[in-house]
């Protein structure tokens, strides 16, 4: 049995999707990020960085794993699925996983901050992060023009990138003119385990169908951002 400590974010949904794909038994613990539960001592003992997601593998002597990419690799290696075991195949998956961890996630995350959450509109920062996100989308589109999935068969690389790219509109980045990326988004999104995984827990972003709901969500995230900055400064 695995305990999953998570929230409705792209990084959190990576792990719920993977667990659903692997059909591993797990218990979901949805953390209230607005209440800073992730900064409480009990959780910091699992993840010293105070971020979701984290897992505890009870079958492995209560072994804790944090960082979403590390969790995906751990689960793939634990089950022998969603990542090849041969060196070349494994490397291909890890390359595209690192592409998400070092590029897509950070750039879209910063686009979210400056486009949605930051109290001041700094257009240069917005343009920078939205532009870099779109550039990375073009890289994905070019690769997917020649491949059904990112690294051979469907893998943790697809899960990681899809969980972020699917939220592109929240970052203010479109996928117009990227037909191969759109094809892949639809293909992965049709998988039953993926559909289940993005509802565990359900994202309020998916229900932000009106400007009022979007602004309410952004206001709550803005408050979390300000609280986190105050904590880092020791205020």
Automatic annotation (TrEMBL):
Keywords from the named record: Transferase
Residue span of region Disordered: 201-235
Cross-referenced InterPro entries: Glutathione-S-Trfase_C-like, Glutathione-S-Trfase_C_sf, Glutathione_S-Trfase, Glutathione_S-Trfase_N, GST_C, Thioredoxin-like_sf
Source organism, top-level taxon: Bacteria
First and last residue of the signal peptide: none
Ranges where the GST N-terminal domain occurs: 1-83
Ranges for domain GST C-terminal: 86-209
SUPFAM superfamilies in UniProt: GST C-terminal domain-like (SSF47616), Thioredoxin-like (SSF52833)
GO MF annotations, alphabetized: transferase activity
Stretches with biased composition (Basic and acidic residues): 204-235
Family: Belongs to the GST superfamily.
Protein name: Glutathione S-transferase
Annotated source species: Pseudoduganella aquatica
Lineage, top ranks: Bacteria, Pseudomonadati, Pseudomonadota, Betaproteobacteria, Burkholderiales
């Amino acid at each position: 049995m695995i305990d999953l400590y998570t929230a409705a974010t792209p990084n959190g949904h990576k792990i719920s999707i993977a667990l659903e794909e692997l059909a591993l038994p797990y218990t979901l613990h949805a953390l209230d990020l607005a209440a800073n539960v992730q900064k409480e001592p009990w959780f910091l003992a699992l993840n010293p960085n105070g971020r979701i997601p984290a897992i505890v593998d009870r079958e492995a002597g209560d072994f804790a794993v944090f960082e979403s990419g590390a969790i995906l690799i751990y689960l793939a290696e634990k089950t022998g699925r969603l990542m090849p075991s041969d060196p070349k195949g494994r490397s291909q998956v890890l390359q595209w996983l690192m592409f998400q961890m070092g590029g897509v996630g950070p750039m879209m995350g910063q686009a979210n901050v400056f486009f949605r959450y930051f109290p001041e509109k700094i257009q240069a920062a917005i343009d920078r992060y939205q532009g870099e996100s779109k550039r990375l989308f073009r890289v994905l589109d070019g690769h997917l023009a020649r491949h059904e999935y990112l690294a051979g068969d469907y893998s943790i690389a697809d899960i990681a990138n899809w969980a972020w790219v699917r939220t592109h509109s929240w970052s203010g980045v479109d996928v117009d003119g990227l037909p191969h990326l759109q094809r892949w988004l639809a293909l992965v999104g049709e998988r039953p385990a993926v559909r289940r995984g993005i509802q565990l827990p359900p994202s309020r972003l998916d229900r932000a169908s009106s400007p009022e709901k979007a602004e309410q969500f952004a206001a709550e995230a803005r408050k979390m951002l300000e609280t986190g900055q105050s904590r880092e400064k020791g205020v």
